[in-house]
Every structure is written in C-alpha cells, then in structure tokens.
Amino acid sequence: MALKTKNKASHKRYIILIGILATFISLLIILSGIFKGLESKSIDWLFLKRGEIKPLAPIIIVAIDDESFKEMPERWTWPRNFYATLINNLKKWGAKAIAFDVIYSEPTTKNPKEDKLFADAVKNAGNVILGMGIFSDVTKSYEKIYPVFPINQLADNCFSMGLIHHVFDIDSHIRKSYMFLDYNKKRYFSLSLEILGAYYNLKKEDIKITYNELTWNILKIKLYRGNQIIINYAGGPKSFITIPFYKVYYGKGIDKNIFKDKIVLVGSTSELLHDVFLTPFSTPGVMMPGVEIHANVLNTIFSGKYLNQIGKIGLFLLLLAIGILTSFLIFNIKAWQGLIVIVFEIVFIVILSVILFVKENFIISFVNPIFTVLLCYLSISTYKVTVEEKEKRKIKNIFSKYVSKGVVDELLKNQEVKLGGEKRVVSVLFSDIRGFTSMSEKIKPEEVVSILNEYLSEMTDIIFTNKGTLDKFIGDAVMAVFGSPIFLKDHAQRAVKTAVLMIKKLDELNEKWEKQGKKTLKIGIGINSGEVIAGNMGSLKRMEYTVIGDNVNLASRLESMNKELGTEILISENTYKEVKDIVRVRKFENIKIRGKEESITVYEVLDIID
Q: Which of 131, 355, 388, 584 has its CA 20 to 30 A from that of 260?
C-alpha cells in the first residue's frame, strides 16, 4: 500500500538514495571477484545462444589424431623426419603459412639426423612458424620464470617462433589468448600473430602497440588488458576443416589443391596427448584441442569481429543507471508489483545482452546488472516494508479507537490517508441525551455509569456497523463521521440510517430498563453533510483524528434544535438532498440557527422507506 503522508517526498528521496547506495555496494561486491565464475558462465551462455558461425579465416588443421596413430608407419612418438615429409608436401601444394602448435625443445635421442631433416624442410619451406613458451615454476620460497624455445637447429631455420600460451580463467576455461608477453626486456609475440606476419609478409618493426590496440600494417587488433585478445569462438570442436596427419604424410585420399594459399596448423587433437581444453562451447566430456583454439584466435583477427567487454568505468555507469532506474520504477508500488517489474527488467537485461553480443560483438555479463537490480529491489523493499509497517501501526493505533476492525483493515488495504489534514465531503452526526445531567443527580453513580456504558456501547456498534467513524464521546454526547477516513459515496444515507437505528435501539433499551426499574433516556440527533477538514489534530503530546469546520458546527446546532422543535432526528438541506428518495420527513422552514445570519430549512426524519 502506498501511504500518502506528509513526508512522502522524503521517502522518495530516501528510496533513491538507498537505490544508489545499493548500487555502490553491488559494485564493490562485483569488483571483489565473487561473481567471476558466474560472469564467465554467462558469457559462455551468450556464445551458446548465438550458436556456431562459419569461420572466415583460410585455415586448415592437420591433426595428430587417433586415426593417424593407427595409419602411420611407426608408433607414437614419431620420428621428426615424418614432419619434414609433411612440410615438404604442404609447401609443394601451395600452403602459405605452416605453424606447429608444438615446442620441439629437446633433440631427438634415437637418430640426430632426423632433426637435420626436419630443420632442412623448415628452412626450405621458408614459411614455418614453430611454437615456444614462457613458463614458471612456483614454490613457497620463490617463483622462477623461464622461456622454452625449439632446439637451435629448428629455431635458426624457421620463419619465426610464437607463444603457444592462452589465458586460463579461474574456472580453467580458455576465453582469451595472449598477443604478446615480455620477458627479460624482450617481447615475444603469439603463434597466431607470427602466423599472420608470415601470411601477409609483414615486418616486425612495423608493429605499433597501445593499451587498447595492436596495429601491424593492415591488421588492427583490439587488445584486452593491454596484451590479450578475447577469442570470438566460431563454435565447438571441428569448426574448422581438419585433415588427419597421415593423409597429408602419404599424400593420398585428399584434394591437394585445398591447401593452396592456406594457413595450415599442425597440432594434436587426440585426447591421449592431453592437449585439450575447456572453452565456452564445452559440454560435459567434450573439450577443444589447443590447435583449434589457435585457429579461433586467427579467425577472430582475420574476420575483424573482435569482442568488446565493458570496462570498469562503463560498468560503474551502467550499474548506477540501472540502480537509479530500478529505484524510480519501484519506489511507489507494492512489493509484489515491484517483483513483477524486476522480473521484466531482468528479462530485458538478458535479451539486451544477447542482442548486443550477437549483433554488435559486445559483451555485457548480465550477472552484474541482475545482481544490482536484485540488491536494489531487496534494499528498497526492506525499507518500504519497514516504513509501511510503521505507518500501518500508526494508523491502526489511531483509528482502532474510532472505527471497527473491519474498517481499519479496509483502510490499511485500500485507502490513502493524509494524517496531516485534507478536505473531505462527509456527513457528521451528533447525538445527545436529553436531561442527562439532572437525571444523573437523582440516581446512584454506579447506575449512571452502567446505563451510560450500555447505551454508548450499543450506539457505537450501530455506528461501526454502518462504517462510520466514532470521532469522540463528549460526556453523554456522541460525535460520528461518515466518509472519513474511508471514502463512502453514500455517507449521507449511512448517517441517516445510523440515526434511525440508534432511536430504535434506544427504544429497546428503554423497554428493558423500565422493566428493571431503571431510568429511561431520550436523545436528539443532528446530521449535516458537506466539506470539512479531516486530519490528526492536537498537541505534540496528544493527537486525535477528527473533523472540523462550519459543517461540523451545523450538525451540532441541529442536534440542539431537537429540544426546541420537539423532534428526535434533524437533518440539514444538504443531507436531505442526498437521502430524499429513502426517507419520510417533516419540513421546517425559516429556522434560525445560532451562529448563522440567514434562516435555514431543516427536516425531521420520521422513518426510512423500505
């Protein structure tokens, strides 16, 4: 329930501030890395939603696979002259660049001539790129970092060497790859970059690097964190043309023209060699060979479809905007309505993330915005529930004295209340016992209290039954209001009906008291309808909900007029207009009322027409 109190504006400000504070808290939690795993999984989910795309890079993978283990002349590990034969064939068939996702760091022990044959083939081809690495040994006492290169025979004769490393995320998935690493004041570039240098015949001195971009003639590579690239995977394993090693070795069962002007990657695809890794497209039991990851890096650069990920400043601004928007969306609605808004907001965030990823290659991990939305909702809802419960208790305490429990519940459920004061159109009822003062002097105090309590209890029940508000008891007098704090369209009819029922109930009480030997009572009732000011009024120490105004005073004057006119129920012209179709009345014209300069017309209610 939205309670319209005088401090609603301050509540709104508090809610916006709470939303902003919750946003800052969410940002701190996010930056702590607690959701890093979920963020990565959300990116994987975006890849799956996008699905596989056709690779654009001219890549063919020559696979050291299980099938080749069976078909090659010798068992694994193969002699290095096998690789020489492979290179000679690929060069003869027109391969533009040949790269090995392997580090040949140790010389052959069986037959050193194999290394020479391999090196000669590498030299003669002139376009072979070999793998290298920079590794580290970490112990409790020290960390040793060292490079690993191919043996000198191979290193001296290859076109170039490139890093075979990729970046492992906290969940052991590979989503990024190094473009270069610095070691001992020297820069080493990735296998993929070296391959492109050979493919396009580029010179290393032309490379220009900023924090966000690596430029190499026609290549403009967007960098992530200064030296990495986010891999835009084309799909899962076998997304690229793959030919078994043995077929290239024998030169049989393949279209040799397929290799012309292509980049050929040679590497293991057999799980037996343990060169397989988790990627965004990985499913249980399915991992991607390292050589295919290099193919995806090359395809990302070749296609120019770089993935951009929102930075820390962008993330902060995005989350701040989401936090403020969420605060504005839910500050003035109920918690369950807010939950519906939040669900739609989350769905929108997810859909927007998918669209931006698929159409613009832009990554927004929807985990972070969703967490911010939920934290804002929970924070604001907690505040609202606390404030609303406080307001409900306040209203319950105020109105439980004036109206029935059912009316209080209805008031809390449906109505908007201004405790500070508002104009309302209502009907006001005053009733007073005739000659009560003189009667109370003639009987015992205990009997006075007994009769008065029974009378007031019955009158209060009738008022509550007709959804009236018991404004106050003034000695033996009763003041009731119909139409405030709960709006009643038929407030006049309810007031008149209450008056008639009060008279009838008093007749029953008098009959009972007369049989008991007690004194009987007579009352007069005055009712007027019109605009009043309603609100919680009084001093700082004591306040009561009541109504004030000329129309209240007129109702009181009408009650007093009953003595002069010998009537029981008098209503004003305003009230009569509202109830004329349901009552029988007697009209009194030119009645002079104390406090009124002009005479007025009043009506005695004789009965209600069924």
A: 131
Residues 468 and 339 in one domain: no
Judge whether 246 and 269 are in contact, CB under 8 Å: no
Alpha-carbon Rg of the chain, whole angstroms? 45
Rounded Cα distance, 459 and 453, in Å: 10
Compute CA distances 552 → 171, 243, 469, 546, whole Å: 75, 98, 14, 10
Residue 319 to residue 339: CA distance in whole angstroms: 19
Q: Same domain, yes or no, for 121 and 205?
A: yes
pLDDT means over runs of 10, the chain (610 residues):
50 83 90 90 95 96 96 94 97 98 92 94 97 86 88 96 94 96 95 97 96 95 95 96 97 95 97 92 92 98 94 89 90 85 95 95 93 93 79 64 56 56 91 86 86 92 91 89 89 96 95 90 95 81 81 94 94 95 93 84 91
What amino acid occupies position 372? T
Whether 59 and 295 have beta carbons less than 8 Å apart is answered as yes
The verdict on 195 and 284 lying in the same domain is yes
Q: Model's pTM, two decimal places?
A: 0.70
CB atoms within 10 A of CB 564: 11
300 and 337 co-located in one domain: no
Any idea of the CA torsion for 147, 153, 158, 162, to the nearest 10 degrees? -10
384 and 496 co-located in one domain: no
DSSP codes of every residue in 376-422: HHHHHHHHHHHHHHHHHHHHHHHHTTTS-HHHHHHHHHH----TT-E
Peptide bond into 520 cis (omega under 30): no
Query: How far is Cα 343 from Cα 317, in angstroms, rounded to an integer?
Result: 22
Domain of residue 186: give its range.
Answer: 59-263+274-308
Same domain, 468 and 593: yes
Q: What is the rounded distance in angstroms from the CA atom of residue 521 to the CA atom of residue 519?
A: 7
User: Would you say 558 and 431 are in contact if contact means Cβ atoms under 8 Å apart?
Assistant: no
pLDDT of the residue at 400: 59
What's the burial of 1, exposed, middle or buried (CB within 10 Å: 0-12/13-18/19+)?
Answer: middle
Q: Which of 375, 378, 398, 343 is CA-nearest to residue 3?
A: 398
Residues 347 and 216 in one domain: no
Do residues 150 and 123 touch, judged by C-beta distance below 8 A?
A: no
Amino acid at the residue 583: V
The CATH number of whichever domain residue 505 belongs to comes to: 3.30.70.1230
Q: Which residues in 225-299 belong to E strands, given as ranges? A: 228-230, 241-244, 263-268, 276-277, 288-289
Same domain membership, residue 381 and residue 369: yes
